[in-house]
Design a protein that fits this description.
2 copies of one chain form a homodimer. With 196 residues, chain A is of the alpha+beta class. Chain A has 9 helices and 5 strands. In chain A, strands 1-2-4-3 form a 4-stranded antiparallel sheet. Chain A is globular. Chains A and B meet through helix 1, helix 2, strand 1, helix 7 and strand 5 of A and helix 1, helix 2, strand 1, helix 7 and helix 9 of B.
Chain lengths: 196, 196
């Protein structure tokens, strides 16, 4: 084996982990979310910009508002998942750079003074962090159901502000009955990796 | 503890893993890269689009061409890392969708007929896969040094084509002497996570 990570962890995070479409009633606690964050916050981002922000949708009222913006095929599972989180990009992440990159606070103005640059960089780096977050959900023994099938403008207006762009919505919980479809194919190594 | 993943795996993938700036001479083999891919290929993407493509820069000639496009501060480590990989987005990923999403081949034309839509979705989902790849490098007991400080147009022209956009360049290997700077701060949970 070329991997150092033990086989059980490989299975937990990648091989047996699946995108869940149904969930049990078991709650997902704030302590679990904090443990997930405290693990995955260390995942690297460019300039340590860490632009990901998370909104946990806990109240029934907020849940119904969110469901109304989801694509029809995502509504039932978004309504019934133990926890739903909105992942978003903070397009004003540069304001935190002097704290996050204390040896090079000039980065804030040298590289990120323009909003379109921040939106581009923030989007990529928040997506990296979204992937770390999905891995973290699995590390907590939970299943993640990430979704991009929703009205982005509607979710932004209802739950965020003009400085925060929705990235995805994730259902989180223990997988329920018939939680997943058969595993979809993946590209072969030679279709993805070339050498020069 | 709220996490199921064992502590050694947490350390390997997140807590003790660091972005490396120096490396030992120990080679990174194709077998290791294949093992990494065969693990992280299972990470989820929207519509299973898996748009990430990887170019391994193995020849001395290609390495020098790549170094010439790196920002000055990234040149020395890009020159000396055991392996350098260019991660890119395939903006024509939709051509593979009938194979990757066999129960819904219409997705190719229903959602991804327009190039700007593909560039947007492909960029986000390739970034998710780049994060899985970084985790995979660490799962192989190696350190990753992801970099976005390079001439994107130059790297695209030299190593890719107009259908593939560079996402990042990653140095890969065993960490060398003084491989990393002190750990940078992270945002506190309450600065990142809110509840509604």
């Amino acid at each position: 084996m070329s991997l150092v990570l033990d086989a059980a962890a490989q299975d937990l995070l990648f091989r047996e982990a699946r995108t869940a479409n149904t969930f049990t009633d078991e709650p997902v606690t704030d302590e679990q979310v904090q443990a997930i964050y405290d693990l995955v916050k260390y995942g690297p981002t460019a300039f340590n910009q860490t632009p990901l922000r998370v909104v946990l949708v806990r109240s029934e009222e907020a849940r119904e508002r969110l469901v109304s913006h989801m694509a029809e095929g995502n509504q039932a599972k978004t309504r019934t998942a133990p926890l739903v989180a909105i992942l978003a990009t903070d397009n004003e992440f540069h304001e935190e750079l002097p704290n996050l990159l204390p040896h090079f606070p000039q980065a804030k103005d040298m590289f990120f003074s323009e909003r379109p640059v921040r939106e581009q960089a923030g989007g990529v780096n928040a997506a990296l962090q979204a992937a770390y977050f999905i891995i973290g959900v699995r590390a907590a023994g939970l299943a993640a159901g990430p979704m991009t099938g929703f009205d982005f403008a509607g979710v932004q207006k209802e739950f965020l502000d003009e400085d925060h762009s929705p990235l995805m919505v994730i259902n989180i919980g223990k997988p329920g009955e018939d939680a997943w479809f058969p595993r979809l194919p993946r590209l072969a190594y030679d279709e993805v990796v070339t050498t020069v």
